[in-house]
Specification:
- The complex is a heterodimer of chains A (about 220) and B (about 450).
- Chain A contains eight helices and twelve strands.
- Chain A has about 220 residues and is α/β, with parallel strands linked by helices.
- Chain A folds into two domains: about 120 residues, Response regulator (Rossmann fold); about 90 residues, Arc Repressor Mutant, subunit A (Orthogonal Bundle).
- In chain A, the strands form three sheets. Chain A has a five-stranded parallel sheet with strand order 2-1-3-4-5, sandwiched between helices. Chain A has a four-stranded antiparallel sheet with strand order 6-7-8-9, with helices on one face.
- By secondary structure, chain B is of the alpha+beta class.
- In chain B, the strands form three sheets. Chain B has a six-stranded mixed sheet.
- In chain B, helix 1 runs antiparallel to helix 3, helix 5 runs antiparallel to helix 6 and helix 6 runs parallel beside helix 10.
- Chain B is rod-shaped and about 165 Å long.
- The chains are: A alpha/beta (about 220), B alpha+beta (about 450).
- Chains A and B meet through helix 1 of A and helix 5 and helix 6 of B.
Chain lengths: ~220, ~450
């Protein structure tokens, strides 16, 4: 899951970046409104965390501009402005949720889950795909009823594949989601990750569509 | 006492003006009319006397076949007013005639003048005479040729009757007209001052604290300046409120952002997978607390400066000694920054009239800002001296500087240059500016002499 973080404050940006990576999200961090707008227009992110008090270009402005250009990515606005009018203005500008600083990282995590869940049309934090079951909130996986320990990256990969179970997910999309925009990814990194995941589950859980991508087939239970 | 009403005043003034013009005009015209009536009546009287004279033209007194020893009394009944009115002869007055011979003996008289004594010899023309209960207007005509003296008389009270009628004709319209005019004037004034009422309605119908400009659809020329002044004030108020609003929003941002970072860093430390990662998060949290502390101190300094503006009188402050104190206090910052601070104090004290705490804040923020914006091997140079226009304070650094086009903005509170390190110039320069304002000092941002960095010059004008 790829999150764009737009925050000009170095300390807060670093803290959120770290916390979100810890929760198995891929984070691209921008400190400037103009850069953030460019990244948003790319539409590759699953969610945007947007600080409103940005130098250069105000966060609200970035948000309005992005919405005007039909960027549909869910946006959580982070702000120190806590007056009701400010919240209304933020939501009206196109924000999907509103976090007033300071906030707990757990709450931010819950809101991110809630928004991405909604974007994918899920009712709760549980995803089922055949014999696989995933609890997003608790980061728990069971395979044929048995719990499986996964690294963050493995978890993130499995989540994407499970969310789109029965459909092929293109490599580019997977790499984008897992490694973000900035990171230089080795060409074999995704294969290595898939290999590790297959070892922990079973080979036939993840099917390779050569040269194109991967999928988790939907099997009758 | 009820406040004077503009409408009432206007109404009374208009009525007074109208009355002042109309009443004298009416009175004058009435007086003229009465005089005319008098002259007309006199003319009629004289005419009547001449008519009588003419009747005796040819035969003279003999034509009347009057025995000189006897006199003829023509019974003329005084016309009663009742009958006159019925006959619509309102203005027919009671008249009487007398005719005397040369000896003054009466030849002919109407009954109503029977008792009137003959005229004095040589009497001619008009005169007033009291006869019985009434005052008469008498015209005497002497005809030398015929040896006749003819007298025609008219009772004054019937003439007064006419005058009364004229009085009423003139007075009644005025009597009824004036109150009607007052009524209409009231209406006209109300109508004319309607824009005032609309303005009052607009103003009283506004939400409390509303700063939306007041507008009228077709404001009269007299109200336009009032509206303009009012809206000007409202705009200024709006600006002030907007500034305050922005200030508190900025302040919230400046305080809550490091607070949020600190909180998340602490949570990261708790959730960390190993001790080393936890320690890194704790150090970040500690840094956050440091930033927060500095911002709170700056905010407090700023609010103390605001309070100072209205407080005690200025005292003489030695800037050189004060700079020494500031440098002492900044020792930890200097150590942390790793940059070199150069200050060669002038031999003698340089005093300015001012507030020590404010000047301390000014010096501290100037030096601290410079130290925070130079690289670890950078230089900050402080000098205090006497310039052409007063004591002058220079802080020169070799940091990244501020582009000329951004210099006007940096004094805005909480302003941060794009891509700047976490602790901006913002609040610091705001404090410097406020402190300088308190002392009537000017601040200039210049290019550092080395071609790189910022040169801040504060001049305390004498």
């Amino acid at each position: 899951m790829h999150i764009i973080l737009v925050e000009d404050d170095a300390a807060l940006g670093a803290a959120i970046h770290k916390a979100l990576e810890h929760q198995a999200y891929t984070v691209s961090w921008f400190r400037d409104g103009r850069e953030a707008l460019l990244a948003l227009k790319d539409q590759t992110a699953d969610l945007v965390l947007l600080d409103l008090g940005l130098p250069g270009k105000d966060g609200l402005h970035v948000l309005k501009e992005a919405r005007r250009q039909h960027v549909k990515t869910p946006v959580i606005v982070m702000t120190a402005r806590d007056a009701v009018e400010d919240r209304i203005r933020g939501l009206d500008a196109g924000a999907d949720d509103y976090m007033v600083k300071p906030f707990h990282i757990d709450e931010l995590g819950a809101r991110i889950r809630s928004l991405t869940r909604r974007a994918q049309g899920l009712a709760d934090n549980r995803i089922e795909a055949g014999v696989l079951s995933m609890d997003i909130a608790a980061s728990r996986i069971t395979f044929r009823g048995e719990p499986v320990e996964l690294t963050r990256r493995e978890f993130a990969l499995l989540r994407i594949l499970m969310e789109r179970a029965g459909r092929i997910v293109r490599r580019e999309n997977l790499e984008n989601s897992l490694y973000g925009l900035d990171n230089e990814v080795g060409s074999g990194a995704l294969e290595v990750l898939v290999h590790a995941l297959r070892r922990k589950l079973s080979f036939e859980t993840i099917r390779t569509v050569r040269g194109f991508g991967y999928m988790i087939p939907l099997e009758p239970k | 006492m009820t406040p004077a009403s503009l409408r009432g005043r206007l109404r009374w003034l208009i009525i007074l003006v109208l009355a002042a013009v109309l009443l004298p005009l009416g009175l004058l015209s009435l007086q003229r009319t009465l005089e005319e009536v008098d002259e007309l009546s006199d003319g009629r009287l004289a005419q009547a006397a001449r008519t009588l004279d003419t009747l005796t033209e040819h035969a003279g007194i003999d034509a009347l076949h009057i025995d000189p020893e006897r006199r003829i009394v023509v019974p003329i009944a005084a016309p009663s007013r009742e009958s006159d009115r019925k006959a619509e002869r309102t203005f027919e007055s009671e008249v009487g005639f007398q005719m005397f011979d040369q000896a003054g003996r009466i030849i002919l008289t109407t009954a109503n003048l029977q008792q009137l004594p003959p005229p004095d010899a040589g009497e001619a023309g008009f005169r007033d005479l009291r006869h019985g209960r009434h005052l008469w207007r008498i015209y005497t005509l002497t005809d030398e040729d015929k040896g006749l003296v003819i007298r025609a008389g008219e009772r004054y009270d019937s003439r007064h009757e006419i005058m009364h009628a004229l009085w009423l004709d003139h007075g009644l319209p005025l009597l009824f007209g004036l109150p009607l005019m007052a009524l209409l004037t009231g209406w006209a004034v109300r109508r004319g001052l309607r824009p005032l009422d609309i303005l009052t309605e607009r103003l009283s119908g506004r939400e409390p604290g509303s700063r939306v400009p007041v507008t009228l659809d077709h404001p009269p020329r007299e109200l336009q300046p009032v509206l303009d002044a009012l809206n000007d004030q409202l705009t200024r108020l709006e600006d002030a409120v907007e500034r305050e609003h922005r200030f508190s929003a900025d302040m919230a941002h400046e305080l809550r952002t490091p607070l949020a970072a600190t909180l998340i860093n602490l949570e990261n430390a708790i959730d960390a997978d190993d001790a080393a990662e936890s320690a890194r998060s704790l150090v970040s949290a500690q840094h956050g607390i440091t930033v927060l502390t500095r911002r709170i101190e700056q905010l407090l300094a700023l609010s103390r400066l605001e309070a100072r503006a209205a407080a005690s009188p200025p005292t003489a402050v030695d800037l050189v000694a004060l700079a020494g104190d500031v440098i002492d206090e900044l020792a930890p910052v200097i150590a942390e920054a790793g940059a070199e601070l150069a200050f060669s104090p002038p031999p003698a004290a340089l005093t300015v009239a001012g507030y020590e705490a404010a000047l301390f804040a000014l010096l501290r923020n100037l030096i601290e800002n410079a130290l925070r914006h130079v690289p670890a091997d950078g230089h900050v140079q402080l000098s205090i001296g006497r310039g052409p226009s007063g004591v002058q304070l220079d802080v020169i650094d070799d940091g990244p500087g501020i582009p000329a086009e951004h210099r006007a903005d940096v004094f805005a509170r909480f302003h941060r240059e794009p891509g700047q390190r976490d602790d901006g110039y913002g609040l610091g320069l705001s404090i410097v500016q406020r402190a300088a304002q308190l002392h009537g000092a000017s601040i200039d941002l210049l290019d550092a002499p080395g071609g790189r960095g910022l040169w801040v010059r504060v001049v305390f004008a004498r």
